[in-house]
Design goal:
By secondary structure, the chain is an alpha/beta fold. The chain folds into 2 domains: 5-167 and 388-400, Phosphoglycerate kinase, N-terminal domain (Rossmann fold, 3-Layer(aba) Sandwich); 175-369, 3-Layer(aba) Sandwich (Rossmann fold). Helix content is 37%, strand content 17%. It has 15 helices and 17 strands. Strands 5-6-4-1-7-8 form a 6-stranded parallel beta sheet, sandwiched between helices. Helix 11 packs parallel to helix 12 (329-343) and helix 12 crosses helix 13. The protein starts with 13 loop residues before the first strand and ends with a helix.
């Protein structure tokens, strides 16, 4: 059980909030402010109650132990001020009297943004001295960043042991969505899992076949499943050394009563480029000079029928080379089908992972899913059934309370 900050009296309290404001930028311009907007949506009610926020975040991949203007979070101030609708001050370091003074001068309903945590070497090595310095800036700790909770960093793990610790509204929303889709799904439940390589998602597949009723396998992973069945691959991406792994996954699925679905036909091309000539062939008939780049229409129809019976859909990974039309056909079709089922009120749909979010946005249906997670590595580790350090730290704190 994790304690929620929304269940606590916060007026006059200084909340040390770990956020994930690592938004994409191009030439100093934010190209997608979703993370800032979603963070602000959860924080505004706390500010309205009189909370003071000290916001901690990382941005990009700077070299630890050195500051670089390219990765400064100061550039986020205008967007953060607009999203929160209040004043946001900035400090260039979490260390020293200036940081402490800035935190002490905060007034109710106001916000202080701390410079990029990853400028400090102590952040990524989970240094307790750095965490202690951060702890001086607040009265209690709030983790509102599920997307970095798979990392045992100072601001996600060590800090939670040094002061009263709570889950933020965005983190709780994410946890509730994932638990409803994986730990206690309405059935039948279907997982769509795709990616370039089976070897990168062995743990995901082995965990999912024990949790859901159906798994639809797509992308290069599907090619490896087809190869294991003796299908020719031509020039298709596949892993010839993973035949035994496919057999293990299928055996685990059979033992738990989960049905694995792989495409019955494929879209192939001779060139890996957008607009390349596409040919539909049976899954066991890829020409020697071609490569499989998408599922075919018969497969889309069969997969759509599986989704139609589902009460819960969990999606990680586009089915084909979705970034190159016309090889986005299967992904778009299934995304729209899942969205249609969700909007009808018959299905709960949860999706996550960077490519998945991009694919759903491309299909124009991201807002029609029950929940879309922007988390990448954390979402994947959750699907693997692993314990996330940031979540475990909050759980232990709640048990002590």
């Amino acid at each position: 059980m994790i304690s929620a900050i929304t269940d606590q009296p916060v007026s006059g309290k200084r909340l040390l909030v770990r956020a994930d404001l690592n938004v994409p930028m191009d030439n100093g311009r934010i190209t997608d402010g979703t993370r800032i907007e979603r963070f602000a949506q959860g924080m505004k009610p706390l500010l309205a109650e009189g909370a003071q926020l000290v916001v901690l975040t990382h941005f990009g991949r700077p070299r630890p132990g050195g500051q670089n203007a390219e990765f400064s979070v100061e550039k986020l101030l205008p967007a953060l001020r607009e999203a929160l609708g209040t004043e946001v001050d900035f400090i260039s370091s979490a260390f020293g009297p200036e940081a402490q003074e800035a935190a002490d001068c905060l007034r109710n309903g106001k916000v202080l943004l701390v410079e990029n945590l990853r400028f400090e070497a102590g952040e990524t090595v989970n240094d307790t001295d750095f965490a202690s310095a951060l702890a001086q800036l607040g009265d209690c700790y709030v983790n509102d960043a599920f997307s970095v909770s798979h990392r045992a960093h100072a601001s996600t793990e060590a800090l939670a042991h040094m002061m009263p610790a709570f889950a933020g509204p965005l983190l709780l929303e994410e946890l509730n969505a994932l638990q409803s889709a994986l730990e206690a799904p309405e059935r039948p439940s279907v997982a769509i899992v795709s990616g370039a390589k089976v070897s990168t998602k062995i743990a995901v597949l082995k965990n999912l076949v024990q949790k859901v009723d159906h798994v639809i396998v797509g992308g290069g992973m599907a090619n490896t499943f087809l190869f294991a069945d003796g299908a020719p691959m031509g020039k298709s991406l596949h892993e010839a050394d993973q035949i035994d792994t496919v057999a293990e996954i299928r055996a685990a699925a059979e033992k738990s009563g989960c049905t694995i679905h792989v495409q019955s036909d494929c879209a192939v091309a001779r060139e890996f480029r957008a607009g390349a000539d596409r040919q539909i062939v049976p899954a066991d008939a890829c020409p020697d000079d071609a490569m499989i780049l998408d599922a075919g229409p018969d497969a889309v129809e069969a997969f759509s029928e599986v989704l139609s019976q589902a009460k819960t859909i969990l999606w990680n990974g586009p089915l084909g080379a979705f970034e190159m039309p016309p090889f986005d056909t299967a992904t778009n079709a299934l995304a729209r089908k899942a969205a249609e089922l969700t909007q009808s009120g018959n299905t709960v749909s949860v999706a996550g992972g960077g490519d998945t979010v991009a694919a759903l946005n491309s299909a124009g249906v991201a807002n029609d899913f029950t929940y879309v997670s922007s988390a990448g590595g954390a979402f994947l580790e959750w699907l693997e059934g692993r314990t996330l350090p940031g979540i475990a730290a909050l759980t232990r704190q709640s048990e002590k309370a």
